[in-house]
Amino acid sequence: MKRLSSSLIIITCLALLAGCKKYLEEEPRKQASIQTVAQLEALVDNAMQFAEEGNSTAALSTDDYEVTRDLYKNNRNAFSTDILQYYIFSVEGVINASADALWQGEYKKIFTANLILENIDRVTGDNAAKERVKADAYFIRGYSNWVLANHYCAPFNDANMGSLGLPLKKTTTYEESLKRATLKDTYDFIQSDLTEAQKVPVDDVDPRRAWRISKKAIAAFMSRYYLFTGNYPLSLAEAEKALATAKAKLVDYNTLAPGIPAIYSNPADTLRYIELNSWTPAKFLYWPEFYYTRFTYYSSQWFVPSAGLLALYDQQHDLRYRHFMIRNGGRRMDVVSPVNYRYTIFDDGSELPAGFTVAEVLLNKAEVQARQGDVNGAMTTVNILRQKRMSTYVALSASGREDAVKKVLEERRRELPFAMRWYDIRRFSVNDDPADDVTVTRDFFNVTTTGVDVNTPKTYTLTTKRLVVPISAVEINVSKGEIEQNAY
Fold first, then answer.
1. Residue 395: what pLDDT?
2. Which of 88, 119, 240, 371 has minimal Cβ neighbours within 10 Å of its Cβ?
3. What is the pLDDT of residues 338-367, one digit of tens each?
4. CA atoms of 149 and 471, how far apart (whole Å)
5. Measured distance CA(364)–CA(223) in Å, rounded
């Protein structure tokens, strides 16, 4: 009898509102407590369960994040050894961490999606409601597998199709195999789920429940999906469909109100936040730019922007810099010296938009236009976004195709730091344009799984192999070795 990972067993018990013993005695489809489509809709409408992605890799493992030697030496308590394992691209440290929030979280979502799909045809209720919640479940499963594949599997390209994919969970049974499929089979499964999700009977975003799927939301995601698989014509076509929305809309950052300032003494300082910083889920779930709500969550609440990231902004006119890059923001973490920045949008810096937004779709479209040589079109598209992000509008222009790609990718990094940078670095590494490849290095200290030797400087480089995140030993051990580790 094969065993699920510990995280899947936990969500099994929670989702069925029964003890593990009872679950192990009955298949989920036989649970008498699930009788109506309204009960299944209630699972989907538990918005934060699906919206958050606890993602240390996105937060810590790209060139958007930087802990200088001086920052660490003066503030060792601000950066745990666990955090530093992701910062230095450790394999052993990530494997031996006590848990992996991303792996566990996404498989919990997959379990709930499977629970819905196993029960949807036998519950009572309105047929239209059934079709909608079924589409939600297919999308939840497909999207979570996409997220997992873009961390724990090799980047998508023809050469990698035979490499290790994911354990594909298609049911709620604990007897289902945890053997990893190939990357091709993984993407085929994702594609089949997205095809089913596209049958959703709702055309446009519901601003009151943007965590529910719609045709426009799926088109927004497909513009990302096809961009990442190198199918530029389809990415452009899906972007155009999504941008026809009458509901999702860009927010003019000039209209954002000041938030609650943070006042410090010894030495005296006042940090001025924008209103979004104090938004809790009661507000940020309804961010108007969303086609579909998803957030990169980082419990430490300190996305430390690198010098390279900060240098990309027009620091006088770009409101993304002025509103979200908080100078001396380290004071929030009791860091006084050296003066450092903190990137924060929602919920005191713990949540960054990662779901597909109007801004991202515009950037997807602009990138495809640039890569296909439509320089004027790319600049027109990207400047639609910039008009909503600058205090004094400064349009981008490009001298040719290569310059247009460069300008669009820089704008993408300014708009989507941390949340999307890991994904982009991976796809740049395997596409047909060597000019966009990214090398990430760290000038830090020698770090082990037990501590940091500040007397031994060391430089780390993110390798091609480490673009694939190690799977936690906890998950491999609980599977009794059925889940195969990535090769390093």
1. 95
2. 240
3. 999 999 999 999 999 999 999 999 999 999
4. 12
5. 7
- Please count the CA atoms within 13 angstroms of the CA of 411 that sit on its side-chain side: 34
Name the one residue in this structure whose structure tokens are 């992996």: 100
pLDDT tens digit sequence for 361-391? 999 999 999 999 999 999 999 999 999 999 9
Helix (H, G, I), strand (E, B) or coil at 93: helix
Q: Is the dihedral of CA 205, 206, 207, 213 positive or negative?
A: negative
Is the distance from CB of 444 to CB of 87 less than 8 angstroms?
yes
In this structure, is the dihedral angle defined by the CA atoms of residues 424, 413, 76 and 446, taken in order, positive or negative? positive
Q: What are phi and psi of 228, to 5 degrees?
A: -75, -20
Please tell me the predicted confidence (pLDDT) of residue 15: 41
Tokens of 254: 């000039």
Helix axes 421-428, 401-415, angle to 10 degrees: 150
Reading across the β-sheet that carries 295-297, which strands appear in turn?
52-54, 295-297, 351-353
- At 33 the pLDDT is 87
User: Using alpha carbons only, what angle is made at residue 438 by residues 432 and 439, rounded to the nearest 5 degrees?
Assistant: 130
Nearest Cα neighbor of 307 from 447, 464, 442 is 442
Q: Using CA atoms, how far apart are residues 16 and 14, in angstroms rounded to an integer?
A: 6
Nearest to 425 by CA among 159, 78, 155, 160: 155
Amino acid at 103: W
What span, in angstroms and rounded, lies between the C-alpha atoms of 77 and 64? 21
Distance CA 205, CA 347 (A): 23
Rounded distance between C-alpha atoms, residue 299 and residue 102, angstroms: 12
C-alpha torsion sign, points 211, 215, 217, 222: positive
* Residue ranges of the chain whose pLDDT lies below 50: 1-30
CB 116 within 8 A of CB 39: no
